[in-house]
């Protein structure tokens, strides 16, 4: 029974947009007390930031309660929100100070490169960058080292370009050596962008106390909770498949499986969020990590090759939904189990005891990769907006880089949206629902849209063709559950209960009215008793009329619908970057992730709706500001269950 109720959660990529949207989805699971059913959480890119955050809390996610989880969510949401205004001011002021310093440097270049006046200008720049910049918040930009690194990289690059110009005009051996040294320094600095991001994640995602960091202590993968599996997905470049980091394994298709050893959590997060061009590839030596289970792959000209270096890129390159850990478990198991008997022969083993331990470890890790929950909630933060501006692509020098970023963003969002639609088609099929239930929660949806579409797919197929599959055959049971969910979203979760109560009250009052009319007919007109009885009849008729009005189905509250569409529309247009989002964008993403997960999970998994209903945007603005919500949401169990065949 416990295995049937086990729940897996996949968090997609999408920068801070995915971080906050998935955080809202997880907050709903805690509020509804269904987080105890979660046995594994896999993630990609921006979702891995949220995954790392909840993995480093004082209690495992499936043991969290609303009282302990809400303050942590408020703290992290406030950090992600940061201040966009302060970030912009810090960027502009840093560029102004940097320009002033470059003018001073280039004034005496190359004769007097290191003069006193240059350091007088450089001092305020470094102080401002190190102190004021991190106050803008976020993860990558919330660490002083990011600002210091970028300022240093821009400064050295400018000096290197000036040196190239001087060398071209008056070449000399000394000038050539100086130019080569500067260009080498630029290349070395630019090549460690992923290391800087790793340090920033380590410093901003639930960092250890400073005295622990001073002793060289770090959050390691092996220190993550054991009662729930946190999986971080990255794309292995040789095979184009997902590699996985977890507390007890490091799996790479081209190399096999290994113990994570001393691998840091921040390394796994950065590898999962290693966006192409923005960051260089992450490299790992195969021999250093002692992989077992795979010896060679068919390479060029069908020759067996054994790569010595493992190269990882952003997990969204292969699958931006982050669901491959669950959906490809059987395929992964079948590919690896054939190596179980050959582990000692494929590895350099000194003693027989070590060989037994190696095989035992391999079989245990193989079993863990096979035993994954079948019930899934896939939180997809990829959305293909209807319009993209291209004005920034005309900026001189960096325009082509920005053009590539726009095209890559289209690739990620469009592919993620199509994957989410295919998964929804799969989860709603009769064959799949005969075995289990799963849900897809996408940022391009609006909370009441899925039940509205399922009640009559033929009617709404043309309007929602970019959101839901048009070729799906919805069975009657699922349509009935969708109709109940639509009524709940229209009138509130207690509509059926309230209707029953009003019907009983109306029947009682109508019986009293019938008796009063009979008594009135028996009395003589004009008498005092007749007039009193007539007043009683009028009072009962008024009560019946009020109960009829109260029991009538209300029309849609178009103001609420308009607000929901507006917030959801703004959410999908939030850029997929790691800079601070601001208070309003963060609150909207939290609200959207919470509300959308509640509606889709209620419809497809039978999870409860929450009261107050619908969720109040003011409560999520409080969370984004670092405060607790005014009203604690409480689950309301509907009488209907998820549609089962």
Brief overview, please?
This protein is an alpha/beta fold and 645 residues long. The protein has 26 helices and 15 strands. The chain is globular, with a radius of gyration of 31 Å.
Termini separation (Å)? 19 Å
| Share of helical residues | 55-70%
Unreliably modeled segments: 345-356, 638-645
Number of strands: 15
Q: Which sheet architecture does the biggest sheet show?
A: 11 strands, mixed
Radius of gyration: 31 Å
Determine the strand fraction and express it as a percent band: 5-15%
What does this molecule look like?
By secondary structure, the chain is an alpha/beta fold. 55% of the residues lie in helices and 10% in strands. Strands 1, 2, 3, 4, 5, 6, 7, 8, 11, 12 and 13 form an eleven-stranded mixed sheet that branches. A hairpin with a 5-residue loop joins strand 9 and strand 10 (304-305). It is globular. Residues 345-356 and 638-645 have low confidence and may be disordered.
Task: Considering the chains and any ligands shown, give keywords for the structure.
645 residues, alpha/beta, 11-stranded mixed β-sheet, two-stranded antiparallel sheet, 15 strands, 10% strand
Please give the structural blueprint:
Blueprint: H1 2-5, E1 7-11, H2 15-31, E2 38-44, H3 46-55, H4 66-81, H5 84-107, H6 116-131, H7 144-169, H8 173-190, H9 193-204, H10 210-214, E3 229-236, E4 241-245, E5 250-252, E6 256-258, H11 265-272, E7 282-285, H12 286-289, E8 292-293, E9 297-298, E10 304-305, E11 309-313, H13 324-327, H14 329-337, H15 343-346, H16 352-370, E12 375-380, H17 399-428, H18 430-433, E13 439-442, H19 449-455, H20 457-460, H21 476-491, H22 495-522, H23 528-551, H24 558-572, H25 583-605, E14 609-611, H26 617-624, E15 634-636
Parallel strand pairs: 1-2, 1-12, 2-3, 12-13
Antiparallel strand pairs: 3-4, 3-11, 4-5, 5-6, 6-8, 7-11, 9-10, 14-15
């Amino acid at each position: 029974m416990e295995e049937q109720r086990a729940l897996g959660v996949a968090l997609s990529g999408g920068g801070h947009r995915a971080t906050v949207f998935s955080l809202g989805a997880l907050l709903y699971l805690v509020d509804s007390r269904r987080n105890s059913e979660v046995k594994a959480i896999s993630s990609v890119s921006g979702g891995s930031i949220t995954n790392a955050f909840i993995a480093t809390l004082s209690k495992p996610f499936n043991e969290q309660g609303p009282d302990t989880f809400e303050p942590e969510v408020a703290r992290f949401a406030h950090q992600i929100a940061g201040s966009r205004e302060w970030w912009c001011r810090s960027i502009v002021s840093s560029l102004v100070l940097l320009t002033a310093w470059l003018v001073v440097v280039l004034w005496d270049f190359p004769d007097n490169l290191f003069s006193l006046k240059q350091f007088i200008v450089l001092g305020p720049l470094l102080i401002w960058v190190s102190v004021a910049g991190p106050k803008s918040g976020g993860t990558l930009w919330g660490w002083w080292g990011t600002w210091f690194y970028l300022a240093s990289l821009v400064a050295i690059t400018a000096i290197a370009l000036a040196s190239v110009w001087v060398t071209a005009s008056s070449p000399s051996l000394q000038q050539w050596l100086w130019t080569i040294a500067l260009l080498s320094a630029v290349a070395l600095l630019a090549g460690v962008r992923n290391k800087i991001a790793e340090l920033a994640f380590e410093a901003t995602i639930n960092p250890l106390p400073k005295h622990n960091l001073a002793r060289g202590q770090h959050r390691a993968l092996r220190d993550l909770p054991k009662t729930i599996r946190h999986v971080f997905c990255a794309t292995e470049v040789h095979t184009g498949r997902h590699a996985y980091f977890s507390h007890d394994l490091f799996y790479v298709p081209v190399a096999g499986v290994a113990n994570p050893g001393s691998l840091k959590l921040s390394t796994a997060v950065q590898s999962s969020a290693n966006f192409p061009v923005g960051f260089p590839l992450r490299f790992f030596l195969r021999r250093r990590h002692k992989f077992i289970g795979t010896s060679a792959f068919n390479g060029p000209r069908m020759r067996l090759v054994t790569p010595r270096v493992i190269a990882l890129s952003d997990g969204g390159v292969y699958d931006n939904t982050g669901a491959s850990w669950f959906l490809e478990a059987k395929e992964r198991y079948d590919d690896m189990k054939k190596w179980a008997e050959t582990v000692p022969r494929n590895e350099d083993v000194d003693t027989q005891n070590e060989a037994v331990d190696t095989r035992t470890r391999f079989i245990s890790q193989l079993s863990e990769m096979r035993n994954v929950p079948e019930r899934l909630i896939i939180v997809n933060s990829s959305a293909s907006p209807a319009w993209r501006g291209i004005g920034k692509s005309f900026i001189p020098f960096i325009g082509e880089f920005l053009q590539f970023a726009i095209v890559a963003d289209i690739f990620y969002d469009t592919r993620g949206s199509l994957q989410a639609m295919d998964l929804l088609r799969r989860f709603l099929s009769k064959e799949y629902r005969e075995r289990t239930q799963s849900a897809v929660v996408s940022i391009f949806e609006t909370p009441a849209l899925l039940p509205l579409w399922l009640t009559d797919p033929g009617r709404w197929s043309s309007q929602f063709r970019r959101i839901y599959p048009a070729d799906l055959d919805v069975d009657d049971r699922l349509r009935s559950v969708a109709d109940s969910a639509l009524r709940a979203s229209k009138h509130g979760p207690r509509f059926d209960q309230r209707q029953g109560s009003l019907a009983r009250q109306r029947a009682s009052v109508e019986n009293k009215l019938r008796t009063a009319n009979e008594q009135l007919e028996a009395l003589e007109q004009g008498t005092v008793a007749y007039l009193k009885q007539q007043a009683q009849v009028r009072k009962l008729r008024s009560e019946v009329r009020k109960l009829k009005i109260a029991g009538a189905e209300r029309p849609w509250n178009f103001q609420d619908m308009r607000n929901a569409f507006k917030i959801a529309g703004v959410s999908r247009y939030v850029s997929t970057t790691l800079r601070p989002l601001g208070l309003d964008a963060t609150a909207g993403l939290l609200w959207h992730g919470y509300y959308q997960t509640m509606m889709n999970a209620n419809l497809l998994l039978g999870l409860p709706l929450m009261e107050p209903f619908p969720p109040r945007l003011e409560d999520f603005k409080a969370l984004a500001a670092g405060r607790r919500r005014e009203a604690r949401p409480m689950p309301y169990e509907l009488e209907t269950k998820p549609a089962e065949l």
